[in-house]
Amino acid sequence: MTGRARLLVIGGDAAGMSAAAQARRIRAEDQLEIVVLEQGEDTSFSACGIPYWIGDLVGGRDALVARTPEEHRAQGLTVHTGTRATAIDTEARTVATADGRSFDYDTLLIATGGKPTRPPIPGLDAAGVFGVHRLDDGEAIRAAIDELPAGGPRRAVVLGGGYIGLEMAEVLQSRGLDVTVVLADPLPMGLLDADMGELVLAAMREAGMTVHTDQAVEEVLLDPDGRACGVRTDQGSYDAEVVVLGLGMGPEVSLAEGAGIAIGVTGGIDVDATMRSRSHPDVFAAGDCVQTHHQLTGEPQHVALGTHANKQGRVAGSVIAGRPARFGGVLGTALTKVGDTEIGRTGLCTTQAEQAGYAFSSDVVEGTTRAGYYPGAEAVTVKLVTETGSGRILGGQVVGGQGAGKRVDVLATAIWAGMTADDLAASDLSYAPPFSPTYDVVSVAARKASAVVRG
Q1: For residue 158, what is the DSSP state?
Q2: Domain 5-115+250-320 adopts which CATH fold?
Q3: How far, in Å, are 172, 244, 246, 407, 413 from residue 202 at the CA level?
Q4: 105 forms bridges with which residues in the sheet?
């Protein structure tokens, strides 16, 4: 890159600011001007932390902001907050904003993020129905809880049983609300196998949540003032002062789509491994708005996680600034909890392995998080999916007590490295009674899977 070019970034959260910061580290201001357009007032904030702020586990809104607009400006970035991009003209290389301004670019990075899934259900846009997407959403939910009259009913209905649904159900309960979770599916956590999902469902009910499965929401009920007062499904009605959406996230691609930028089969912007648009070479995209690929199958994926957004932004910023970099894909590794039960998954579940055409076996092992004689040892279940013949590990799931969840990272590392069950069983994993039995449950699961491969 020669002369002073302009990088224009749409979106000032994880992917956008990671790209901008990385490009600035590589290229000085006299070589590359970097301009960021952010529709809100916050930059580099943790959407993943919003449930825990609502649950009073985080000190305040500011604790979720990793770097303010002022701090980014001090690093040589021009950041415009309260500036919503409304249209991209790829021929003129300009972006129009809602306040009537126009910004030109040499290279454009789209980091518009995701948007909460909102099916066409009557009443879903009413007051008292909340998404969990931006810091303002957290502020609004906290205010709604605080405004509930003392001595009156305190009821919440959470729609959906994915990561956000489970996390919100837990923190709403911790704030003293009676929580009902409504699922359209037979089990929570749809990317777990059914036997592992049953463990999660049992944990939710054991924690005191009311869970209704296999029920399609037909309507959000409204009081005379037009505010949500419950939901009606195809099997019943459930009263609530607060209704929270935990129905997942989709890519926000309206700007890109309007500009004729290629959209992939998952609905995300179609980019290559350098995060460059496949249809427009001077346009990059990163974060929840893009389509990526599964590291095992190579198939297109859309996964909305801050870890990937930051990595993709860093790759894009490097490439834009002239340093080679590539994003290696995803395994769908994720971790959450409900009550004292931790839930992790990575790679392929059995349904995904079957859809991908693998011949495979699956093995389940039960163990404890610590040596059985050590205080605080809790039950943990590990499930491995391995390829028939080769023994290569394809997927792993973990459900158990405190200390269980992070074991999924061992499985994710093994899958990423192409390890077999035999390799993992022979690995030198750590041991001490406060942390695991002599043979950790991961090792035992790998050994069992290896024995199956050996016949």
Answers
A1: E
A2: FAD/NAD(P)-binding domain (3.50.50)
A3: 18, 21, 19, 21, 29
A4: none
Asked if pLDDT for residue 3 goes beyond 80, the answer is no
Q: Is CATH 1.10.287.690 correct for 340-454? A: no
User: Whole-structure pTM over 0.90, yes or no?
Assistant: yes
Say if residue 139's pLDDT is above 70: yes
Could you identify the residue written with the tokens 């990423």? Answer: 416
Quick one: what percent of the chain has pLDDT higher than 70?
99
Place of tokens 């894009």: 316
Two structure tokens written together for 108: 């454009």
237 and 231 in contact (C-beta within 8 Å)? yes
Q: Which residues pair with 385 in a beta bridge?
A: 362, 395
State which H helix or E strand residue 97 sits in: strand 94-97
Amino acid at 37: L
pLDDT of residue 451: 87
pLDDT for 323-364, tens place per residue?
A: 999 999 999 999 999 999 999 999 999 999 999 999 999 999
Residue 1 has pLDDT above 60, yes or no: no
Q: What pLDDT does 263 receive?
A: 98
Query: Which 8-state DSSP code applies to residue 149?
Result: P
Q: Hey, CA dihedral for 180, 185, 191, 195, is it positive or negative?
A: positive
Q: Which of 48, 229, 289, 349 is catalytic?
A: 48
d(CA 154, CA 175): 9
Known catalytic membership, residue 229: no
**In the chain, domain spans:** 5-115+250-320, 129-247, 340-454
SS3 70: helix
Give the separation between CA 287 and CA 268, rounded to whole angstroms. 10
